[in-house]
Amino acid sequence: MQTWIDFKELRQRLSFEAVLRHFGVEPRLKGKQHHGFCPLPNHQGKRNSASFSANVERGIFQCFGCGAKGNILDFAVLMSGKDPTSTADVHSVAVELHERFVGPMPNEARGRAKTRPSPPPAQPSEPTADNRPRVINAPLDFELKSLDAAHPYLRERGFTSETIAHFGLGYCSRGMLKGRIAIPLHNTTDGKLIGYAGRLVNESEVSEDEPKYRLPPKRERKGVLFEFQKTRLVYNGNRIRKPVDDLVVVEGFPSVWWLWQCGIENVVAVMGASCAERQAELIVGMVTPSGRVWAMPDGNAAGERCAESIIRLISPHRFVRWIKLDADKQPTDLSPESLRALLTR
User: Which domain CATH number covers 86?
Assistant: First the structure.
């Protein structure tokens, strides 16, 4: 299991000037802009033309000769002779940069990558009808391995290697999630892995027995019933580490991935067409008292029900604005520019 790393946070902490020097490029700055010969090893074109430009403040670069462009992490991947569309390559270079410029990876992440975590103690939270003890959303004692992060489904939907790696996504070829994209689910309050959802890749197979999304099933161990309840968490809530001024609330997983990829980092999903009371409590706690909640459900009847539940439960505590999408549209149908325009109105 790869060590988890927050790519966006890493990019913010890196100095582009330091990364340029690391790869043998002496910054020639005019203000915050560096201009010079293209240093990329796969550069196609003239080497004696100052076609390469990097904005060290914004952390982006572009070569007008070979056409390469991207952020500071893309630059490091290319300079390392690796593929920026490969999740594994992006991850390995990110770890190297973190180790060199930020510091050692957290011990917890290292341990998680090398050892199997201990099973959680059975601490019953509620009895069942037959008096068996029941534990809700307990941490898992395993992690799925050998997930295919390069599966065409994710690429065809427009998700980048960085987004796929950030959310730990991958195609599962065996077990209960066979034929599905595995989606790690983390407890909102402590960030612990509590299960995997699975998104069916082949739409033609969707049926009553094969729903589009499969959530963790009930399981029993030593007389204790372990159960997953989505109404007790919000997806991606574990990454909202302190109250924010603006929080976008969507229905489903892909909308979270897409908004994050478009630069809208503070986004969570209720994982369905309604917001539960516990989810509303969690969302209120993620937003500053003077902050705003932006409800952006799908443009259909289910989306309307979702927005109405969000407004009913959250508006007494925080300002809520409903962003109504056109009929049958989803947040994933919108361009980054359109999303930003909707969130600044």
Answer: 3.90.580.10
